[in-house]
């Protein structure tokens, strides 16, 4: 009987050595998932606030972008203005009629990139006026690359994994 009891002395250490890496990987993976979820909630809130402002001030592209950037800064993130994309769509066709790049002013007047075949700003048919009007939709997309802290989670995620949020609303005035 004494022989069987002495044979089990290393059992707990062996079980711990087998289970500990999996346990710590799960704990660190939960931290990474929590960081990713917190980033998504921050970006979702920022895009909602920006599109809310845009529904009443569609002509103020730089104001829309600055609201999104400020909301993200409140969530302790730093974002490049190129990661905030503002698109204007015709609701009947759902085609993009204009997009507002960083640093643009009012959409019909300043640095709006309108989709056409020539180098000059132009609109796709059937819209020929290029004015952003009530009833059109504005879409704000906020995105930022996400880098996991856990090496295994980094290998599981796609190489260019980004957390993003898009919000769309109708322009009121």
Give me the secondary-structure topology.
Blueprint: H1 2-6, H2 11-56, H3 61-74, E1 84-89, E2 96-100, E3 137-145, H4 151-156, E4 162-170
Antiparallel strand pairs: 1-2, 1-3, 3-4
Q: What does this 3D model show about the protein?
A:
With 173 residues, the chain is α+β, with helices and mostly antiparallel strands. It has one domain. It contains 4 helices and 4 strands, in the order H-H-H-E-E-E-H-E. Strands 2-1-3-4 form a 4-stranded antiparallel β-sheet, with helices on one face. A hairpin with a 6-residue loop joins strand 1 (84-89) and strand 2. Helix 2 (11-56) packs antiparallel against helix 3. The protein is elongated, with a radius of gyration of 25 Å. 21% of the residues are buried. Mean pLDDT is 78; it is low at 103-129.
Describe the structure concisely for a colleague.
The protein has helices at 2-6, 11-56, 61-74, 151-156; strands spanning 84-89, 96-100, 137-145, 162-170. The chain contains four helices and four strands, in the order αααβββαβ.
């Amino acid at each position: 009987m004494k022989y069987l009891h002495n044979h089990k002395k290393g059992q707990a250490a062996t079980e711990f050595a087998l289970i500990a890496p999996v346990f710590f990987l799960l704990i660190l993976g939960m931290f990474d998932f929590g960081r990713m979820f917190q980033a998504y909630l921050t970006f979702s809130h920022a895009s909602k606030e920006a599109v809310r402002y845009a529904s009443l001030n569609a002509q103020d592209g730089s104001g829309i972008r600055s609201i999104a950037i400020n909301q993200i800064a409140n969530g302790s993130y730093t974002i490049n203005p190129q990661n905030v994309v503002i698109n204007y769509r015709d609701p009947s066709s759902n085609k993009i009629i204009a997009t507002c790049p960083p640093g643009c002013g009012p959409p019909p007047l300043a640095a709006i990139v309108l989709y056409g075949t020539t180098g000059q700003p132009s609109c796709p048919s059937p819209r020929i006026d290029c004015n952003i009007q009530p009833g059109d939709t504005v879409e704000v997309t906020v995105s930022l690359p996400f880098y996991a802290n856990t090496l295994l989670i980094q290998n599981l995620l796609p190489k260019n994994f980004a957390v993003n949020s898009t919000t769309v609303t109708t322009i009121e005035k």
